[in-house]
Write a structure and sequence with these properties.
Length: 304
């Protein structure tokens, strides 16, 4: 925005005035200017005609505290610029013990704006969620759109597979189920999500157990993306045997994160991830609470 010299000097002088009213006016104008700048960043690349699906993901959200509302505000802002109607909610939906009576405070109110516009959340169970009745109340809660402890659904060219990665999961039955569902799927894009990370440079690190159980199936049936939470940071890996692993566990709080040899980008900041699905690629973006994109990557389509 171009300002005349007098306007610029006037605005600069406002910062030296200590009255609350003038300070508020300056902050309000700066906020408005920042929003204009942010809009330009997001809208710089208009969606191409071959866009198949847009969705977002977030995890470890269920606090009802300031951090969750800040991320929800960024999700609302992104929805205004790039409409979407699907959110992958990757576990720890209700802190600390999965008490369903908290659902209003930790889900319905923070995401009210999205929910009233028809955005659907598809959840999976985290380790905190199973502390009350093994997570059954959340499975039955309509707003989480869960069909069971693990389930699948399809949106356009993308088939999603939700896993129960908790230690008390029925692993044998679940692995058989996943292989059957993957083998019969004709969706070009296959996205799996669960609470626990396979590859993480944060607190929980790499899970050899999950890698041994599931990655042979990911490779055999061409799963291109796995989304998780549990570690409270953002991290995107490179292509690991055909699959990109993406941690979006900073939906309400953060922990420190490092880097590994397979890390494309990592950040210990409040954030969510957004995905634009095309026939030949998925474009991944990460947005912080300042409503700016701080990471972008591309998952290229590779047929099985």
């Amino acid at each position: 925005m171009n300002l005349k010299r007098r306007q610029f000097l006037f605005l600069g002088s406002l910062g030296t005035i200590s009255t609350g009213l003038v300070g508020w006016k300056l902050a309000h104008q700066n906020h408005h200017l920042a929003n204009i700048a942010n809009s330009a960043v997001i809208a710089a690349t208009p969606p191409k005609k071959d866009l198949l699906l847009r969705f977002t993901s977030v995890a470890d959200t269920g606090t009802g505290a300031k951090g969750q509302y800040a991320v929800a505000g960024a999700m609302n802002y992104y929805h205004q610029q790039k409409p979407y109607d699907l959110v992958v909610l990757a576990g720890d939906n209700i802190y600390n013990d999965g008490e369903i009576e908290k659902i209003g405070a930790v889900f319905e109110r923070p995401y009210k704006e999205l929910l009233t516009q028809g955005v659907k959340f598809h959840a999976c169970l985290g380790n905190h969620d199973i502390r009350t009745e093994n997570g059954d109340p959340q499975i039955k809660y309509p707003g989480f759109n869960m069909k069971g402890r693990y389930y699948t659904f399809r949106r356009d060219a993308v088939q999603f597979f939700a896993l129960d990665t908790n230690r008390n999961a029925d692993w044998e039955k679940q692995v058989v189920w996943l292989e059957e569902e993957l083998s019969r799927s004709d969706a070009p894009w296959k996205v799996v999500f669960g609470h626990d990370p396979f590859y993480s440079s944060g607190h929980y690190g790499v899970s050899q157990t999950l890698i041994k159980r599931f990655t042979p199936l990911f490779k055999q049936y061409n799963v291109q993306l796995y989304i998780n939470g549990h570690d409270h940071h953002y991290e995107r890996t490179g292509n690991i045997d055909g699959t990109t692993y993406l941690t979006t566990g900073s939906g309400a709080g953060v922990r420190p994160v490092g880097r590994s040899q397979w890390t494309e980008h990592s950040a210990d900041r409040l954030a969510f991830a957004a995905y634009n699905v095309y026939p030949d690629r998925i474009e991944v973006s990460a947005m912080g609470t300042d409503k700016r994109i701080f990471d972008q990557g591309v998952i290229k389509f590779q047929s099985a």
